[in-house]
Fold each of these.
Amino acid sequence: MKMYEATIIIPAYNEGKNIRDVIQRVRNVSSKYQIIVVDDGSQDRTAGLARQEKVKVITLEKNSGKAFACLTGSSQAGCEKIVFIDADLQLSPEEIPKFVSALDICELAIGVRDMKAIPLQRRLANILARKMVSHGSQQLHDVLCGFRAVRKSALKKMSLKQRRYEFESEMLLAALKNHMKIKEVSVTVSYESYKGMSVIDSLRVLLYILKNRTGK
């Protein structure tokens, strides 16, 4: 039985044009990563193309949301270290090792992007979310980045319930509530083919944080 260093969870929705490239780049970084693709009810060939790469593919019958996809993948993770990276190539798989290493000294590692490189809508949402989430001495710089890593044991303690784009914020709030050690990891980002959260989704995330933030 092959021993893996970390499990890489790739949630994907209609990412047929990118999924094979993402998988290949993750594999090129290290052969010691278990790769799990969660096809979140795609209407294109995402699942089939991923299977061609000989990785574990979980197919959801309908689009159930990013959080649901990530947690479903995590339930099948064979490693204590879990890394989440989106399939749209906005973030670089070559930076995964930084997250794997970070988990040697923390329970949660979150990506920190250059705010100037982020579309205005998401930048504003992130600024507001950061002000609401930053807690005591733990001043965080990018609370909504989807590139992050968590120990499986810590993820279990978080008892996450949300299903969609609240995934990152719920995870962070749970980590703060449980006094877990959080480490920030600088990452590069490209929004050449931006298709992220809608304005409505951004507002939902902010409302969720406002309702559930701690220590205020």
Amino acid sequence: MFHRMDSPTPFDSDAPVGSKRAIIRYNPDNSAELEMVEATWGSNPRFSDGTSYRFVRSEGKTFPSHRCLMPATEFHMTVKDRRYRVRLDDGNFFYLAGVWEPPMAGYPLAFRIITVAANAEVSRYQDRHGAIILRRQVMQWLSKTDLLETPPARIFVVDEIPNGPRQPALVL
């Protein structure tokens, strides 16, 4: 089993490709065991014409394997020269749905965030955001239940982040 995550961190969608984050997934060597491992954000560029993709759209996809979760307290977004933080209105932490890729061709274990159409609060700023998995939905998502939908209105609080130094990429 994995240890409970008591202090998830903010997720910055502007963090550079290659940033490291903790993900939760089923252990590929023991499918009954959950594990928390460090992974690189972004797909292997050798297999996509030199581009590393950090996001994957949910529409038309089912993600039957390699599902993972990234714990977060909030996510950040940038619109023009302003930055915003988005958090759940109840203050709880949540997970972003993702898919992981095994290490290959010298590239480390990697993950991408799955996106959905933005909900009412976020759509004023951008048209998509990471798929939100609530704490009570963790096992459903990892056990292949489809939970990829736009969250209802009034679930998020959006606040502007005052100008100042940006949070560096997180390394665990």
Amino acid sequence: MRIPIICGPTAVGKTELSLEIAEKLDAEIISMDSMQIYKYMDIGTAKPSLVERNIVPHHMIDIVYPDEEYNVYKYVKETLDIIDKILSRGKIPILVGGTGLYAEGLIKGIVEIGPDFELRKKLQKLEKENPGSLRSMLEEFDPVAAQRIHPNDIKRTIRALEVILKMNRKFSELQKSVAPRKKFSLIFLNRERNELYERINKRVENMIKLGLIDEVKKILRMGYSPELNSMKAIGYKETIDFIHGKYSFDEYIHVLKRNSRHYARRQIIWFRRYRENVYNINLTNMSFKKSLKIIFEIIECSLSIENSGREING
């Protein structure tokens, strides 16, 4: 049995399809979105509505406040526990989202060392005072890990250094001892670029109509700092900049659309790295009904037999 992960770039259509599939299978959905974990942040994270969550049980949504620390380690631990509980009830868990680090933690496993938030703060302070210093440290302490982590990926750089400093061992060596989990199948949804970008642009416009600006103003009035990691997410950072007068309204919309498209491109590049147990589905020129049928058949296959994946186009 392989547990399905329905993933793909923002605005590709994951939510609508997964809700139909979950309802048909009497399944429960586990969000694999690093922003939907935050309370109050609804419109900008495109959370399923309360009505949709009442129809299909959802997990890992609204579990922390915007100023609470959260990480991949916690996500993987909590999600694996939820999966076991869903299975124990005789139901099917379906993971849905586009956060690559969460998928990687579930599929490839994680180094079983919890976070040290004090050490992270010290490393963050060091980087702020001496930009580039953490990268230099990682290259010195663990050249292999430095090659695998992008120079601009401060979050993963800090995690690697955190483990190195706590365990006095190379992060790359510890990663070798982590056994990958063979219990998941990736169903990667994508569309032709022009179509996907048009959907992203329309989603941004719809978020504005639904009240994204007012949502962000409300969160700021509640006392949450614009400097929080949660508030630097796409949709929130641009809106805060607009509220503070950095952009005109038209500039704000342009930047938000552009950044959302860039994020989608990064998501696509991330998930293309997976080669085993992956089904790539191009939704362009494919009807909603046909999409449902294909995904439903893949999930039934995943739940019953071993599979290696294939390419599916409209």
Amino acid sequence: MAHTPLSVTIITLNEESKIAKAIQSVSWADDILIVDSGSSDRTLEIAKQNGARVLVNPWTGYGQQKNFAQSHAKFPWVLNIDADEWVSKDLASEIRAHLDSLSTEPVHPTGFQIPRKTFYLGRWIKHGGWYPNYLHRLTHRDFAKWTEPEVHEKLEVHGETVRLKNPLNHDAFDTIADQILTNLKFARLGSKDLVWRGQQPSIFKLLFKPLWKFIETFFLKRGFLDGLPGFIISINAAHSMFLKYAFLFEKKIRPVQRANATPIDYENSDHR
């Protein structure tokens, strides 16, 4: 059976607590590339110690950074994982078996979808839309490119793809506060995408989009089966949705506030 070489790409920024586990889980790959956007901690030192190649590329966006990494991979077949994800031995064996059985002319299939399983609040989350969360992560780069929105980038693959059985493991948030801060960042970025698509602020969406998100994740996608963590996930998902549309209103209101604001006399005031 022929050996099909594989590159693994990981984008990073200050991931010293997690990057070693991610790299070690793919130590069986032929090429491991870290693309860092300016870490100030020990991320790059740890990556090099664990045998990864390192490139530094200034941050331009999630999809942009992943496309840069994919273009600098040594081999055509590329597996992308995040710094807080890791590949189990079962998934590694499944990937290796599929790649080594591929025919090269023509390339078939052009990519694989991997289910992702997330560990959060002391348990593996199996409902609420978190699992199975099938993602295109293993592809032949000639047939795949990351989209480049502000947030929630996707790897678009041209051609036939196959679903793998074993999940990619995801160590999501260390605390509830971490999830809230991440949701805050993504909600801001999501509101920028709404502006780019020309959406206007909507009271209806501000009120009902969050409510529907809770119903969808907790009831329709059975998040209630994950107990208290499932409830917290659904509440946070609804809150994130609310913030995204609230930020859209803020973008409209703030320029008006600034235009109507009374200039501050800094010389004769105690404003800090």
